[in-house]
Amino acid sequence: MILLMGPIDELVTSFFLAHLTDTKSEYLFVDQRHLGTQVRLELDLAPGPHASRRLRGAVCFPTWRVDLEDISGIFSRLGTGGVREHVTPEVRAERAHANALMDLFHGPVANRPTAMVSNNSKPCQYAAILAAGLSVPDTLAGGDWRLWEPFARGLTGDPVIKSVSDERSLVKQVSWDDTRAAFLPGRPPPPHQFQQRISGTNVRVHVVGGREVFACRAESQALDYRHPDMTGHPVHLRATTLPEPVADACRRLSCALGLHLSGIDLIEPPGGSADPRDWVCLEVNTCPGFMWFEQHTGLPIAQALARSLQAPLAS
Amino acid sequence: MGGLFPGEAACEASGSMPKLVLVGAELFPHLRDLLRAEALRAGFRAVEVPVRAWGATTTPWVEVKGGRFRAGLLGPEGPEELEREDVFWCLSEGPLPPEEDYLRAEREALREGFHTTCPARTLNRRGLLSVPWTVPSWRLLAQQLPAREGACVLAPPHFHVGTPPEDGRRWKPWPQEAGGTDARVWWTVSAPGPLHMAWVMGQQVSLWSVEDGGGARVAPTPELAADLARLAAGCGAEFLEVLLVPSASPTAWAALQLSFVPEGLESMLSGEHPALVEQAEHFVRAQLAGQEVGP
């Protein structure tokens, strides 16, 4: 059965839960608010020849328990949805136990916590993106005017400015003059990331289990189609098929980052191309809200995810 | 000998020399002396960034243009680029100064990005794609050991997460790690023998008995040396300290703790342990020369 953990009122959690219920899939649901209050985890790792086969344990409820051996895969939305809760030491401990379970579990997990951290730093992801054969925008993160000036000379038009981390994922286009004027002389500038604005069509790619690839175009005049309300520009999503070399690069990238489910933001070059090096990858979302894309395009992402998490484990 | 950044004397050497860039070396004075001496011998300019300055007054920068990374440091005296012929070792990293959550996350992301992409030859590379710096050490032991199939002699302890089992064995709480998680982890080892410490530097492994605060060198069996070297390689580490005990049988060992920070080495260098000094010198020399350290 699939172990699903997350806040019951979080959109993607409830969407996936509804999918599992509608398709009569076998699942065990743990509401985030119950972890550390009514639900606790026990894990046991005895020394032995294969780390993957040594993990034993259970998800423990007040009057019953489910052995980890009965679980085929895990989908977690823990920490999403902005849930306000009273975080006791027990809650913190159980959240940490859940992270340990997801990192050590021998079956598929969407996604393991250690694999999700790459999104905390975009330059970290750029290294993996380039290694997978895709391109990244010319970027400068950090520094001051002594570095910005030569970088700016190489750009076409004004740069895009965005966060280096995954906090406040807003993107703005700025002029160099305004940027320079905004910084106080004599004080080191705060961290920032400047990028070449890339022309082309936004394409969101979800890769499930390192194999199945679901792509959709996001057609919009907005600089950042993910926040269309802020710009007033509408966004139109429609399913598309990637050239196979580009799909392969997405699979490689998802696998290299250790992600069972990834949301890859690409820009397709004007006129299209089958060469992955012509496609620019902006970032990889390690906790993608695939529901919005599925609802607008009909791409069966939840079905593929459920199928991949239900796969019987090799003995 | 010195560096460009606060807390260090100015350097007399020219800018064309390759650089040995150290972060946090002031916390390891004996190792710092060794690193400075080897840098001087190899014609490297030593650049030192104190822990308190790293990410605060000396900040990293990263540029990618046409798919090629450049990276460097920006201190009070200007930008310093780290290139392929340079060597970088961040021995210790402290918390960033308190400020708004967003700015803290940004500074942290910049440091992580620098660690991951810096083109210089890097010892124990940090960053969010590096296992030693993203996985708690008990999980590393559980996942990385046994380091090979077959005749492996190094095992992890038996771990239990949750409430400690009441099975008659002596379960000890796993120590909380700096910046680590709140997990309640317990461990036990069958018939533990005296404490030992192993240092893996490249492929070279040395083993020392450290019971009663002493430091007597012990020859590791080839199987144990191979397991320790594979453990370091599995973690992507050039330098690794392992606390271990003989366990259960005369040839079997249990690894109790891992460290990628040279705290134990510093402590040993402050004593009379010429063999360990020689191992460290050989390791640093090979790193500066861009060579593999053979067994």
Describe this structure in words.
The complex is a heterodimer of chains A (315) and B (295). In chain A, 31% of the residues lie in helices and 25% in strands. Chain A contains eleven helices and 16 strands. Chain A has a five-stranded antiparallel sheet with strand order 14-13-12-15-16. Chain A has a four-stranded parallel sheet with strand order 2-1-6-7, with helices on one face. A four-stranded antiparallel sheet of chain A has the order 8-11-9-10, covered by helices on one side. The radius of gyration of chain A is 21 Å and the shape is globular. Chain B has two domains: 19-129, no CATH class; 135-289, ATP-grasp fold, B domain (D-amino Acid Aminotransferase, Chain A, domain 1), CATH 3.30.470. The relative contact order of chain B is 0.13. Residues 1-14 of chain B have low confidence and may be disordered.
Radius of gyration of chain A: 21 Å
| CATH-level-4 superfamily name of the largest domain in chain B | ATP-grasp fold, B domain
Record field, number of beta strands of chain B = 16
Oligomeric grouping of the chains:
heterodimer
Largest sheet of chain B: 6 strands, mixed
Discrete helix count of chain B: 6
Q: Which CATH top level class of the largest domain in chain B fits?
A: Alpha Beta
Write out the strand line-up for the largest beta sheet of chain B, numbering strands in chain order: 8-16-15-12-13-14
The overall number of domains of chain B is: 2
What is the succession of H and E elements of chain B? EHEEEEEHEHEEEEEEEHEEHH
- How much is the radius of gyration of chain B in Å? 20 Å
Shape-level CATH architecture of the largest domain in chain B: 2-Layer Sandwich
Average of the residue pLDDT scores of chain B: 89
Task: Quickly name the level 1 CATH class of the largest domain in chain A.
Answer: Alpha Beta
Q: Tally of extended strands of chain A?
A: 16
Q: Domains counted in the coordinates of chain A: how many?
A: 3
> What is the CATH topology classification name of the largest domain in chain B?
D-amino Acid Aminotransferase, Chain A, domain 1
The secondary structure category of chain B is alpha/beta
